[in-house]
Design goal:
Layout: H1 2-17, H2 33-42, H3 44-58, H4 68-87, H5 90-93, H6 97-119, H7 121-124, H8 126-131, H9 138-165, H10 175-201, H11 205-218, H12 226-230, H13 235-242, H14 245-257, H15 270-295, H16 299-302
Amino acid sequence: MADTQESTKQRTQRIASLRWEDAGTPSSNFGSTASQFIDIWRHRELLGLLTRRELKARYKDSVLGFFWSLIKPLTQLLIYAIVVGQFLGAARNIPNFAIYLFAGLTVYGLFSEIIGGATSSIIANAGLVKKVYLPREIFPLSAVGSAIFNFLIQLLILVVAAFLYGTLTFGPHLLYGVAAFVVVLIYSTAVGILLAALNVYLRDVQYLVEVLLMLFMWGTPILYHWSFATSHMPAWLAEVYLNNPITLAVIGFQEAFWAPGSGAEHVPMLATRLVIAAVIGVVGFLIAQRVFARLQGNFAQEL
């Protein structure tokens, strides 16, 4: 009996000497955001594992494997280039229409894939959410990592195609592509994290997102030039349209890989617009993360 009491006392002392680690939902103030990011960094290996699992699961038992990440956008490109470019005559008004189209599809595909994957990520990992504690943001972030991998493959094809068409030139304009990538990454991650939390409580969100992403694509200048849209709008609405961050990102990618060899009209102050959009996006991301932190406390019960 004395030995048991002594052993219990030693265990108590040992546990008391351990550093305290929070394992619950953090407070909802902005000051806890840093601790959340630190917690995610501590679990970076798990984030990498989930990202690799996401990629492997997508093409499991597939003969072509990762080549499917090329086949879908190339099929889209072929359909749009023939139907919209040739049958509807868009190619007559936009030189090197195939590069213009693929540049827009590449960057919008990143946005669409992150939003779609992140929205359903918590539901897809319900077993882990209910059994163990880890930063719940890891699940939508793993969808981000998977989407970036596919984006890089498509970007490689875009660079090669732009080189063959003669629209790829090296210069400061390529920074538009970098800025466009950053803007899309910030906004899609912010929206994806927010929708991932909402989807736990309302499962219709993921189906609504699929419809909205399809509609939103037609609201960005992928299949038509931005000047065609703004010419049919009042001046104030044209400014709203051009300052849409995803519209800016699409135009930025086109400026980087299509515009140099096409003699196209340029958006005024595009670099400034992209920087402002990125700054606003960071604020939006922080707000989305705090909303996620407030909602994640009841994930296990809802799942």
